[in-house]
Design brief:
By secondary structure, the chain is of the alpha+beta class. It has 3 helices and 6 strands. The strands form 3 sheets. A two-stranded antiparallel sheet has the order 1-2. Strands 3-4 form a two-stranded antiparallel sheet. A hairpin with a 5-residue loop joins strand 1 and strand 2. The longest helix is centred in the last third of the chain and has 32 residues. It starts with 8 loop residues before the first strand and ends with a helix. It is found in: Nucleus. This is DDE Tnp4 domain-containing protein.
Length: about 130
């Protein structure tokens, strides 16, 4: 049972900008904290051993600036070289940190949209629609 007293399953997923799921971890009860699911995931092992991206120097170029590939996570996840999370707001964030958190949150909405599409697909399927 999860914290809301009903049965659920924890799902950890990574989606790209095209709303395609690139990695999914399923099977943990909903009561298990996201950080634990993350620590025990294939994604975490690949991130830690440097095999998450095709090459150690994987990057894209925007306006001539090299931007290394990273994954964005929410505040339940630990900050890693390969995983960017928002700053913890303890009331002392600088303007720069607040702006970073705003951009981070806006960019992470891609994952929320991907999950929204998945939920709608599941509802259509459960009602016999395709």
């Amino acid at each position: 049972m999860n914290r809301k007293s009903y049965y659920s399953m924890n799902v950890q997923a990574v989606a790209d900008f095209d709303l395609l799921f690139m990695d999914i971890t399923v099977g943990w009860p909903g009561s298990v904290h996201d950080a634990r699911v993350f620590r025990d995931s294939h994604l975490f092992r690949c991130g830690e051993n440097g095999t998450l991206f095709p090459t150690a120097t994987a990057a894209s170029f925007f306006g001539g600036i090299r931007v290394p590939w990273r994954i964005l996570g929410d505040s339940a996840y630990p900050s890693k070289d390969w995983l960017l999370v928002p700053y913890k707001d303890n009331g002392t964030l600088t303007q720069h940190s607040r702006f970073y958190d705003y951009i981070h949150s806006s960019t992470r909405m891609v994952v929320e949209r991907a999950f929204g599409r998945l939920k709608c697909s599941a509802l259509d399927y459960s009602e016999g629609q395709v």
